[in-house]
Give the backbone structure.
Amino acid sequence: AQSVSQHNHHVILSEAASLELGCNYSYGGTVNLFWYVQYPGQHLQLLLKYFSGDPLVKGIKGFEAEFIKSKFSFNLRKPSVQWSDTAEYFCAVNPYTGRRALTFGSGTRLQVQP
Amino acid sequence: DVKVTQSSRYLVKRTGEKVFLECVQDMDHENMFWYRQDPGLGLRLIYFSYDVKMKEKGDIPEGYSVSREKKERFSLILESASTNQTSMYLCASSNRATDTTDTQYFGPGTRLTVL
């Protein structure tokens, strides 16, 4: 069965700092990769996704992620965070074959200080 | 826009009660999912359904059952609620027929407390 690891559980940054959140998955086959975000009091929403093509994908609000197949990684980045980016971020994977349900990482809570 | 709604935002129940959590999506999605979200554990899949009257166990199905009598509605049932089922429950839907990435869209969640 696949698994997803998010190594940073709680990250605190100042506004304008750069962000990189790590995500590694274990699955030998082809996968779709997702980052979801949950702002305080709001529902989970899609930030960006990768399914094929250019391994550097861009999402909403200036976020991007790079898929590195050799490292089984899909790290999330943003060059300059804002206070409004304070949220919990989840990496998720679903395989092309077999059970087509998402496997989530444990989440990273990002706190941006003004 | 896809809309996934859940019947309650907050629910308080007593140990041993039978609990129904309802989820409705308005985009004719074929796939529906129930997750529970706990701090430090992320989201864990309880049950999912690819079609009406079909269901599949997820990673933590024990103590839960589901019902999908209509395409738009997916119910999660706690047969006899226990305190360790206190959690946030999230419903999601997706449509592989029109989106091969199977992107899931989530409802607002139901925070269930079992006393």
